[in-house]
TrEMBL record:
Signal peptide: none annotated. The lineage of its organism: Bacteria, Pseudomonadati, Pseudomonadota, Alphaproteobacteria, Sphingomonadales. Keywords: Antibiotic resistance, ATP-binding, Kinase, Magnesium, Metal-binding, Nucleotide-binding, Transferase. This is Aminoglycoside 3'-phosphotransferase. It comes from the Bacteria. Residues 25-257 form the Aminoglycoside phosphotransferase domain. Mg(2+) binds at N201, D214. The active site is at D196 (proton acceptor). It catalyses: kanamycin A + ATP = kanamycin 3'-phosphate + ADP + H(+). Pfam families: APH. Belongs to the aminoglycoside phosphotransferase family. NCBIfam families: APH_3p. One of its GO terms (molecular function) is ATP binding.
Amino acid sequence: MSARTPGLPKTLPADLRDRLAGYRWQRVTSGESGASVWRLTDGRPGATLFLKTAADRGADDLSGEADRLRWLAHHLPVPDVVAFVAEADRAWLLMTAVPGRNVAQVLRRSGPAERIAVVDAVAAFLQRLHAVPPGDCPFPAEPTVRLAQARARIDAGLVDPDDFDDERAGWTVERVWSAAQAACPTRIDPVVTHGDFTPENVLWHGGRVSGSIDAGRLGRADRHQDIALFWRGLADHGADLQDRFLAAMAPPTPDRARIDFHLLLDELF
């Protein structure tokens, strides 16, 4: 199905087909989740939906994302799960839309003063997430858990070294793996983490953070998991803005060694 084609994909489950009849479909090309994503509209304000679908291993990931969204919705604004359908080799996740533009877009179109306000607001939003009691979170994602997941991805051939950050250009997958193992922290600050807290996954609307999306990696982990990814996403806007974000995430002051570890680890996902 091409972008903006009104109508339903032939593989859509019957119950979703009935529910979504009359919607206009637009393929979403941004994002790195590995799932196919569509934006669905029917002309009514506030009625926009998003549909993700994935097969095989990705279907398990979608099931996990649905569980995490349902849990996180009790604590922070995220997409509501409208429906989740699992078939033999494919899964479908239908969600409401969080209003607004992603923070990456907002920062690119903002002046220095507004960028500071956005970063401060994002830091406050992240502090709210990290204040949720980690013992209440049923999803383990500590560094040892994430390393085991990374090794499984390597063994399955799912890590592309061409996607590594510039500072690791030319590295082999095994070199990144060895460096991540060596850098794994011996202590962590356990909190509830988003897991993929990039500027693209935080939404901004009406002068405030309106919510977050793509919560499939949410879980109990070191708070530097989230700090590292958002900090990296600010690089194009200068070191001063990155420093501003780190200062807003204190106390305690973020640990650069643990930030570096999580950036290494993220190369494998």
